[in-house]
Amino acid sequence: MSSSLPAALLERERPGEPPLVYADSGADAARWVAGQRDELSAAVVAHGAVMVRGLALGGPEEAAAVLGALDAAPVAEREAFAPRQRYREGVYSSVKWPPNQPMCMHHELSYTLEFPGLLLFACLSAPESGGATGVADAAAVLDALPAALTERFAREGWLLTRSYNNEIGASLTEAFGTEDPAAIERYCRAQAVDCAWQPDGSLRTRQHRSAVVRHPVSGRACWFNQIAFLNEWTMAPEVREYLIEEYGPEGLPFNTRHGNGDPIDEHTVDTLNQVYAAHTLRRPWQRGDLLLVDNIRAAHSREPYEGPRDVVVAMGGPVRLADCAPTAEVRFP
Hints:
InterPro entries: AlphaKG_dependent_hydroxylases, TauD-like_sf, TauD/TfdA-like
Low-confidence stretches: none
Strand content: 25-35%
Organism: Streptomyces physcomitrii
Structural class: alpha+beta
GO molecular function, one term: dioxygenase activity
Oligomer: single chain
Mean pLDDT: 92
Number of strands: 20
Protein name: TauD/TfdA family dioxygenase
Pfam family, one: TauD
C-alpha cells in the first residue's frame, strides 16, 4: 500500500480483493472518516477503491454524513438510465435492476459533461449470496485492451443513443427531473445532447463523449465510458430480442456506437467485458461496510444475488469532462 493509513487499521491486499481498512469498532462513522480523510483520499486515488469495515453504517443519512466528512460536494444524478430512490442530495438507492442479472462494469454518469469523482457505497443489508460490488482499475483495463480497439475509441469517442417512452428504463422525470418538453430541450442543448421527439410522444437522444480521459489528480490515462454496459450485446439475449421486436432496433432504451456512428459488434463488447472480468476485484458485502470508489480510476459492477440487498450510493466531488484531457472532442449538436 502506498497510502499512509495506520498499519493497525490496514489489512494487506489479497489477490482478487480491493484493499480493506478496519475502522475503530463502534466509532461514529462521519467522525472517524473525517479523522482519516486525507489518508483515505490518498488511498482511493492510489488504488481506485478502498473498503472500510467496522463503521456499522445504518442508513442513508449516515452515508450523506460520510460524504460530507470527506469534503465531497454532493452530485445530483441526471440522465439516469434506470429508476432509483433519492434519499437526499447526492444519496440514492441502488438502481432497480433484476437481482438475477449482473450489472457489468461502468463508470457512474460517464456519459454526462459533469460526473461524480467519488462514489460511496454503504451496505445496509447484505444479501444471502452474491451481490458484490466489483471494481476494476480503469488504467489497467486501458493497457490490457487491444491497441487497435482503444486507438479507434480514443480517436473517435463513443455515441450513446437512448429512447424514453415511459414504459422501459428511466422515465423522463427520472432522467431529467421534469416532463416539460421545453425544459428538457434546454437541458439537452446545455449538455450537448441531440434530442428529437417522436410522433408517439417518446424522446430519442444521441450524445458524443470521449472514451479515454486522464485522471485530474494522477494524470493517468483511463478507459472511462459505458460502452459495454449500455450496449445491446451486453443485454441478456432474450431481453434484447424482446426489446427489438417490441420497439425496433432504433427504439432500444439505450445503446452505444462508435464515435462516427458505426455499430459496435458483439465481438468488441465481449472483448471489453472479458478484460473487465480479468481485472475485477471483489469482497463479499457485510452489513455496515463502506466502499469508497474513485469514479474515474475505477469502474464498478454489481453481481447477481439472492436474498434482500440494500446498498446505498452517495455521489460526490463533481468533475467536468473538459478538465480530464478527453482524447475525443465532444461534438455539440
